[in-house]
Amino acid sequence: MDIITYRKTLIPRWIKFFGWLFIIMASTIPFLWAIYPFLEVSQPPVFAIFGIYAAGPPYFFGALIVQAIIAFMGISAYGLLFGKSWGVVACLINGYLGLAICLFVMVMSGFSSLQLEPLLQIPYLVRLHKIRILWQGQDNTEV
After folding, report:
1. Which listed site, 88, 112, 115, 122, has its alpha carbon 20 to 30 Å from 138?
2. Total Cβ atoms within 10 A of residue 58
């Protein structure tokens, strides 16, 4: 078994599902940028992740922030799902960043905006920490 196949076996199905979801979401961003000028919309699109909401064209600052977060999540998911050596580290950064953003939004809203994302991010981070040693320990060897 080669290293990429081995790394892919370490990832649980639920993380693969969300990984592909983020890859799809991230891959739609350039498409949205290309077609938005030609669309006639009655209401501006809403961009949201981790409790951050931005309504307006994809070129507005708030929308750019949300798109940047989604793009980073898509790139880190790619690294994990395709067994890249940097995949687990990128996903750990992604997970801690998302958790920090969620907690910040909840605190700043006076806990009137409760986010459900931490319910998945905490098990996600625990699982990534468990596979990180196996993932990195196999960089120079065949399994």
Report:
1. 122
2. 18
pLDDT, position 114: 81
The answer to whether the CB of 80 falls within 8 A of the CB of 91 is yes
- Count of H-run helices and E-run strands, the chain: 5, 2
Instruction: Give residue 138's pLDDT band: very low, low, confident or very high (50, 70, 90).
Output: low
Query: Can you read off the two tokens belonging to residue 92?
Result: 């750990």
Tell me which DSSP letter residue 36 carries.
G
According to DSSP, the residues that pair with 46 across neighbouring strands are: 55
pLDDT at residue 7 tops 50: yes
**How buried is residue 87: exposed, middle or buried, by Cβ count under 10 Å (0-12/13-18/19+)?**
buried
Residues ≥6 apart with Cβ < 8 Å to 115: 50, 51, 102, 105, 106
